[in-house]
Design goal:
This protein is mainly α. It has helices at residues 2-9, 16-32, 60-74, 81-101, 106-113, 117-123, 134-145. The longest helix has 21 residues, at 81-101. The chain starts with a helix and ends with a helix. The mean pLDDT is 94.
Length: 146
């Protein structure tokens, strides 16, 4: 139990490779003591989401919406901090771009996406918002300022 508690406590401070090893060790420990909590998740689907492909789609706005729905389906409370940060960053970037394509203002996009601000701050801030352009970066700043 003490070893399991240590593995769970350090989940957000170690690399993915270390988490994978720890996850396997915890599975063995849980077989002996089922009351031990589950290890936080790193959904592999996150690594396969490419927002850069969305603008090249036949209907970019619809493609960003499809990605948003896919990201929302991945959200669970048992994600690692790294996974939460990546997922929320992708969600805000996709949502911002979809709303901008639909003619919404930056302020409207911030208002729509503000619910993701607190969890993103708790997870350690966004992942590379500048990569999505200055308007999306301003929307990130607005979301995080709320």
């Amino acid at each position: 139990r003490a070893r399991a508690a240590l593995l769970l406590a350090r989940a957000d401070q170690v690399s993915r490779e270390e988490r994978e090893r720890d996850r396997k060790e915890l599975d063995v420990l849980r077989a002996a003591a089922p009351e031990i909590g589950a290890y936080p998740l790193d959904p592999p689907e996150l690594d396969r989401i490419d927002l850069g492909a969305c603008p090249r789609a036949a209907d970019p706005e619809m493609e960003f919406e499809r990605v948003e729905k896919r990201l929302l389906a991945l959200w669970t409370p048992d994600l690692t901090r790294e996974a939460r940060r990546t997922l929320l960053s992708l969600l805000i970037a996709a949502g911002a771009q979809r709303r901008l394509l639909a003619g919404r203002s930056e302020a409207e996009a911030v208002a729509d996406l503000a619910a993701h601000g607190a969890p993103l701050r708790e997870a350690g801030g966004p992942v590379a918002p500048d990569a999505y352009g200055p308007r999306v970066a301003r929307i990130f700043d607005g979301v995080l300022a709320r």
